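Folding follows sequence. Below is one example:
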Amino acid sequence: MLPFAMATSMPVRLRIFSLNCWGIRYMSKYCVERYAMIGEVLSREHHDIVLLQEVWSEKDYLFLKKTLACCHPYSYYFKSGVIGSGLAVFSKHRIHEAFLYRYSLNGYPYMAHHGDWFGGKAVGLVHLNISGLKIHVYVTHLHAEYCREKDSYLPHRVVQAWELQHFVRHTSSGADVVILGGDLNMHPQDLGSRLVWTYTGLKDCYTETEHFDGCENGITLISDNPFINKAELGPFEKGIRIDYILFKGSGKVDVKCESLSTTKGSISGKPFPLSDHEALSAQLLLMPVVEVRQDRDNELATDNLPELVDIVNEVRTEVKVGLHCTERKRHTAARTGFMGVVLLLLELAIAMVPWLALAAEQPFPRASFYLLGALCFAILLSTSMLYLFYTTELKALQGAEDQMRLAIGSLQEKLKTLETPQKSPARCVDSNTEHPDG
């Protein structure tokens, strides 16, 4: 049987744009003006696919949808969490399907000044068909790193990276081309980045491109950006690279990155940049192969098997650290809640004194009595909510750790199979064959 014929035998070029818009209405500086600038840039550049993050307001999405109606007639806005996922895709080509996966861990609701929990961080997927090629496009935004030295969100972020690679691997099996873009909030050599790169086989446009035009070392959070607080960059004086466009081909299509560019702070003729992040623009060349090959995912996993085992072990260690921290927090919430119950019972006992001794008066002022009661109730309510939240977090971490344990066992088994020399099959002797000696 002849291999499946490609719908096109000609190379296809795709231009991809990715930007964290920093679009927090009434909080981000010049939000309305910057969205107008983003719409102007996208209308002029005519990218095939636009991947946006932190479009927190649906009004801003609708503004961009109207602005880009001529050049990007197809779009999708991923809704999640309290204020949305902030993820949006605009495309020249028809979007056939869309799906959202929300990460199981995403910060803490009481850390309201960080806001990640309310955003419902997730990964969005859209299916495109371009010149007969099945293109799976992913856009995501992972939990921010607020303090590298004391990163209390690291277990959450590595679990998000674990779920991201799982989602990509299990939803891209039928794709000819896979593209992932977004703000991963991880440096290239961070544990989560290495996990996603190695497990999925995705390639980084910055390291693979033939031509690069942008900030030094491809950094996307630069110190020269007027919206950036340099103190938040810590030891990285010039900036950090946390925004990416990743890609992967298949047995039917080879993909290479011809060029990658980033903005460099303020836009020419404009008083301020598009965002606090720099925008990325990549041009990919899709080349259908003459003879369809077997999917290379297994080959990639085999080549990187020892490294992958080490990475998953590292990730599992970080998750275990997160488990211990969450268990301590849950125990603290339980103890505090128990103290609240004791105080409430004590107050009820005090309230019973006038009833038991008919002549007795209230032991202390009524206002203080009610204030103490309200305090006990507030402690009991807040600790109960925290206990439930930490229990949910604990279950998610335990589930991820169990998955990693299974994955490590499977990878080690494959590794042993590869390391064990293949024994040559023994020659079978027909029992009916007579011996030469008689």
